[in-house]
Design a protein that fits this description.
GO terms for molecular function: aminopeptidase activity; metal ion binding; metalloexopeptidase activity. Belongs to the peptidase M28 family. M28A subfamily. This is Aminopeptidase. Residues 66-284 form the Peptidase M28 domain. By secondary structure, this protein is α/β, with parallel strands linked by helices. It contains nine helices and eight strands. It has helices at residues 6-21, 32-48, 95-115, 136-144, 147-150, 189-202, 219-223, 241-247, 271-290, and strands at 51-59, 62-71, 75-85, 121-128, 153-159, 170-172, 208-210, 228-232. It has an eight-stranded mixed beta sheet with strand order 1-2-4-3-5-8-6-7, with helices on both faces. Strand 1 and strand 2 (62-71) form a beta hairpin. Helix 1 (6-21) packs antiparallel against helix 2. The radius of gyration is 17 Å and the shape is globular. Bound molecules: phenylalanine, calcium ion and zinc ion (3 copies). Residues 97, 131-132, 160-161, 215-216, 232, 235 line the site of phenylalanine. Residues 3-4, 6, 275, 279 line the site of calcium ion (CA).
Length: 296
């Protein structure tokens, strides 16, 4: 997998901030900054050769949008899907939550195109609407998918907050081996967790498990029996001194002190965490999609 330049990811964050600033300070569901964000991401993907679809839904009297991007080729019956929510909370521009996940997966998608990656499995990327109002976009997508299409999705990778300023390196506990999940996820979730962990091990960064309870857009996927996984650098929770011993940073402070606040801007991102997580996404997409299917 390629090493993704973090400057490319940061350039997308600059665009998300400009969009928020030009649209009343946020990129929230039902507000103009949300659709402007969709159009920015769609434009980059279309130019790179993706097949994009905008799926509309209605929530709370407003139209919401999911952006779906398919990379042509690969086994149509074996899909590796990667997603992030593109909406912000109404209080601010949502740069860590979730500009970081949105920008990281966008840059991985663009790296697929740049490198001419031709995986065995089919690659699909998604930017979800209205996560902040209760996973509305991702739930709409999974609910609307025919059962035959659901079973084709072999893995769903979710990235929600991957550049927290006082970061932890958390991997969703898909196998419940850390005992912090809500029980093991669908079969295959363990392999996703182990692949993400393998990347961090390769760069010498320890990880810890985090809740696999559905508090982000992977929830509707695991409810439908689709294997899932992802990473997270922390939200309103407080970093402990034991976590500082592992990762550095500030004990007794939140992983993200600007969570759902107006100050979730460009200064609210740790570039090292963003870089490592983006590279972990690329590693995992390449590993899960590129392997030859087992014989038989
Ligand atoms: N989904 C939460 C939000 O967007 C953040 C979160 C992500 C919390 C992952 C826990 C785990 O506000
Ligand atoms: Ca990198
Ligand atoms: Zn979020
Ligand atoms: Zn949020
Ligand atoms: Zn585990």
């Amino acid at each position: 997998a390629p090493d993704i330049p973090v400057a490319n990811v940061q350039a997308h964050l600059n665009q998300f901030l400009s969009i928020a600033t030009a649209n009343g300070g946020n990129r929230a569901h039902g507000r103009p900054g949300y659709l402007a964000s969709v159009n920015y991401v769609k434009g980059r993907l279309d130019a790179a050769g993706y097949t994009t679809t905008v799926q509309s839904f209605t929530y709370n009297g407003a139209t919401g949008y999911n952006l779906i991007a398919d990379w042509p080729g690969g086994d149509p019956n074996a899909v590796v899907m990667t997603g992030a929510h593109l909406d912000s909370a109404t209080a601010g521009p949502g740069i860590n939550d979730n500009g970081t996940g949105s920008a990281a997966i966008l840059e991985v998608a663009l790296a697929v195109a740049r490198t001419g990656f031709s995986p065995d499995k089919h690659l699909r990327f998604a930017w979800w609407g209205a996560e902040e109002l209760g996973l509305r976009g991702s739930r709409h997508y999974v609910t609307a998918l025919p059962a035959a299409e659901r079973t084709k999705i072999k893995a769903y990778l979710n990235f929600d907050m991957v550049g927290s300023p006082n970061p932890g390196y958390f991997v969703y506990d898909g196998d419940n081996s850390d005992g912090v999940g809500a029980g093991p996820g669908p079969a295959g979730s363990a392999q996703i967790e182990q692949t993400l962990q393998a990347y961090f091990t390769s760069i010498g960064v320890p990880t810890r498990g985090t809740d696999f309870d559905g508090r982000s857009d992977y929830g509707p996927f695991i409810s439908a029996g689709i294997p899932a996984g992802g990473t997270f650098t922390g939200a309103e929770g407080t970093k402990t001194s034991a976590q500082v011993a592992l990762w550095g940073g500030t004990a007794g402070a939140a992983f993200d002190p600007c969570y759902h606040r107006a100050c979730d801007n460009l200064g609210n991102v740790n570039a090292t965490a963003l870089d490592r997580n983006t590279d972990a996404i690329a590693y995992t997409v390449w590993a899960l999609a590129g392997a030859a299917p087992p014989p038989g």
